[in-house]
Design goal:
Layout: E1 2-6, H1 12-16, E2 24-27, H2 29-35, E3 50-53, E4 69-72, H3 74-83, E5 86-90
Parallel strand pairs: 1-2, 1-5, 2-3, 3-4
Length: about 90
Amino acid sequence: MALHMLYQSERLEQLAGVVAETDAVLLVDRALASCLSPEIGSAPRLPCPVYVLATDFDSKDCIPEHPGITGITFDDWVNLTCQHSQFVEWK
């Protein structure tokens, strides 16, 4: 079980090749902007849960509706790091 932090959408294909159902992915930085852009129109299709931090959006913590992506708080992020034995950054 690993928690993957995806920083660049260019690494998504590589990530998809190794991620397992028991893993989790957190979209951050450029990956977040790319994966949620209207031009792309859909979340990454991965076999595991995909998350974004609610604080990465406006002051109301309003997360755009995207199937397959769940908004989480910092507390949720801490819980994910406790639940997953490995931490992998995709920069």
